[in-house]
UniProtKB/TrEMBL annotation:
Residues 413-479 form the Signal transduction histidine kinase dimerisation/phosphoacceptor domain. Gene3D superfamilies: 1.10.287.130, Tetratricopeptide repeat domain. Its EC number is 2.7.13.3. Keywords: Membrane, Signal, Transmembrane, Transmembrane helix. Residues 1-18 form the signal peptide. SMART domains: HisKA (SM00388). The chain crosses the membrane at residues 361-380. CDD domains: HisKA (cd00082). InterPro entries: HisK_dim/P_dom, HisK_dim/P_sf, TPR-like_helical_dom_sf. This is histidine kinase. It comes from Chitinophaga sancti. It is an enzyme of class 2 (transferase). It catalyses: ATP + protein L-histidine = ADP + protein N-phospho-L-histidine.
Amino acid sequence: MFKKLLVILLLITQVVCAQKSAVQQLRYQLAKERDSIVYTDVLNELSMKWHLTNADSCFWYAVQARDVANRLNYRKGIADALNNLSIAYALKANIKQAIEYEGKALVYYKQLEDNSNICQVTMNMSIFHSLAGMNETGEQYLYQAMDMGKKLVYDSIYSLVLINYAIRFNPDSTKRDSVQWAIRQAKKIASHYPGCSRDLYYIHAFEADNLFRKGDRAKAVAWINSLATQAQKDELIYVAIDILRHIETYCNQGYQLDVIPYKEKIYTLGKIAGYTDLMLPQVVSIYRYYAKVHNAAKMAEYGHELWLLTDRQEVMKDSRHVNYLDYFLKEQELNEWHLSNKVQKEKLARANTQRLARRKLIAFLAGLLMILGGFTFSRYRSYRYLRHQEELLANMNAEISDKNRQLQVQDDFKNKLISVVAHDFREPLQNIIRVSAMFRNGDADPVLRQKLIRETEHSSRKTLEIFDNILRWIKSQLSGFVYAPAPCDLKEMFSGVVADIPEGLQVAGDQEMLQFVHRSLLQGAATLGKDVRVVAEQEADRVKVMVISSPTVLTAQQATNLFAYEDAVYSVQGEGEELAMRFIICKDFMDKMGGQIWANVAGEQLQLIYALPSFS
């Protein structure tokens, strides 16, 4: 533990030595600087660095910077000077003036869109409002600073915002996890900025608090003392004071040690750095202690200090400041009143006993009511859960019914497909039987025999073609099928058909699928109308092909359902189920090729249309 502490302090010392060197360097730069803008920036940097060591020096440099910036109308310099003045007034316990200056600085930074300094000033406003007793407003400013700091991520000011968050909520045990998170994040950010010596002191002080909570109380106190001593050596007086306040917290949490020497040391450090006006609570506490132990010499010493401080406070007194002397005197009067009314308290004891009994009864009834409420809530949750399960079951049943309906439709389609195939196979087989019978008997007319052979060949070829198309369609339904589009020249594919097709117009598709679609559309157009012709045109990145016939026997409603899975057969009823099956397969092929297919009836004209991506 000692080795770890020694390493930490050595690291901090190295950083602060660098900070001291930076102050000396700024002083040297200030002496020889000729550029007024840079001169103002150096003054503000010095003022900011001095606020941790000497409030008067912080104030003096800030006043000088503000005067120069006002003459130059240098808004960034004015904003920085107002910020430093605000900090100086806060160190002098003039919180009202600090808030006013910080508010003006915030306006300037918002005009400049300086997000880092907006975050820093908002954080300061949270501290000042909390010091003024406006805790709710202070918390609002702190949360605003946290939100802005998250967007800065690795900006060093976010580290300080996180530390202030930890300081504000460290006493709250319900926020212990968020406080630990804030310290870890601050440590991570500080590692990117070796100059954040103040942040390192606060981070290690919180680590000492963790040791205290884990039971290593003596080590925690030793660590705090070492950090405070090192901070004092490095002239970070304000940091040393903040760190020493952890000892008082440990005492309040039950650790047995004499806290008065630490309070006296805090007061001494405050006087050295010019933070005297902030030391009033320490002086009041010390005075009370010596009054309690009847140490007349110390009472006289700190009574005089108390008088000096309260006299200064009276000058700055306003509605937002606490007059600590009046508070102290009134507290003494309250103690005397407490002693004089001790007898009355004894008289009230019996009434308090009765009141306690009533409270117990009320507590019992309230507990019973809570149990009933919990039981009711549990029943209500069970009811809601059952309703939810019923809804899920109903949805699942609906999905199952829908899938069953789809399976039924598909089953009907396959049955019809089998029926079509059987019908198409019947004709060539019958012809073959007839031809075989004629050859067996040998008494057929040669002309009739040749006619039957030609019919048998024609019907067999047609059936074979249908069978090949069905096999192609079945193959496209299998899971292993991979569609690979290729260029298809429409002019060549519609050769021998009356067609208005531009030369070289190509679509991206499967040659065999597309040939089946063309044959089916031409057959359908010829079956459902007359005077068949083909028109193709380029539309943006796709090609639209129309097979047109007129007049047609279909209505507009029938044409709309021509390629619908369930309604195709009914749309061409009377024209053959084979054509309906072809249209359904056409629709499926178009879906595979990423195209669309539909039908329109315009007047007496039937338009069978498909659209596919252009191959270019």
